[in-house]
Predict the 3D structure of the following.
Amino acid sequence: MKYCDSLLDNTTQELFERLEVELRGVDNLRLVDTAWLSCQDFKQWLEQLFVSVRASGGQVTNSNESIKSSKYA
């Protein structure tokens, strides 16, 4: 997994910066499997992406409902 690799080589910031660029203009970011959100470090990085998607007018959803971040919503 790229996230685990980025932890080892200290490139996590760059990984999520690239993801943010790739997600620009996305109308709906749908999360199929949310089990990995239980990892707090990973979730914090992802929540920043969720905020970015929402700020550009997109939605972040899973199969049941809209994802609400307690920190960034």
Observations:
- The chain has one domain: 2-62.
- The mean pLDDT is 84.
- The first helix runs from residue 2 to 9.
- The two ends are 27 Å apart (CA to CA).
